[in-house]
């Protein structure tokens, strides 16, 4: 699929969930949300979901945003990928 075809899959603005995984510590959820808020502003509490792994070693945080553009999503994923506490961003 070419890049132009992939951009046609999303029509902006749209609701878009961003899932991040990291080690379960007291600060991970706050870090994950702050990284997203740098790009979209304040995020409502009901737009944030967290889930611990089976043994409690890892935490996933899903933040659903109102994505405005592919560029915005690219910038978010770039920041997430470069942050040492984010192990995986989907």
Write the layout of secondary structure elements.
Layout: H1 3-7, E1 14-23, H2 28-40, E2 48-52, E3 58-67, H3 70-82, E4 88-89
Antiparallel strand pairs: 1-3, 1-4, 2-3
Helix pairs in contact: 2-3
Explain what the structure shows.
The chain is globular. The protein has a single domain, classed as ACT domain (Alpha-Beta Plaits, 2-Layer Sandwich), CATH 3.30.70. It has helices at residues 3-7, 28-40, 70-82, and strands spanning 14-23, 48-52, 58-67, 88-89. Helix 2 runs antiparallel to helix 3 (70-82). It has a 4-stranded antiparallel sheet, covered by helices on one side. It has 3 helices and 4 strands; from the N terminus they run H-E-H-E-E-H-E. The longest helix is centred in the middle third of the chain and has 13 residues, at 28-40. Strand 2 and strand 3 form a beta hairpin. It is α+β, with helices and mostly antiparallel strands and 90 residues long.
Summary of the model, kept short:
This protein is α+β, with helices and mostly antiparallel strands and 90 residues long.
């Amino acid at each position: 699929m070419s890049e132009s075809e992939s951009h046609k899959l999303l029509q902006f603005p749209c609701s878009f969930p961003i899932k991040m995984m990291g080690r379960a510590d007291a600060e991970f959820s706050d870090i994950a949300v702050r990284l997203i808020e740098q790009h979209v502003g304040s995020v409502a509490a009901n737009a944030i979901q967290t889930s611990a792994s089976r043994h409690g070693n890892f935490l996933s945080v899903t933040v659903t945003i109102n994505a405005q553009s592919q560029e915005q999503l690219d910038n978010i994923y770039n920041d997430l990928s470069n942050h040492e506490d984010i192990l995986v961003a989907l």
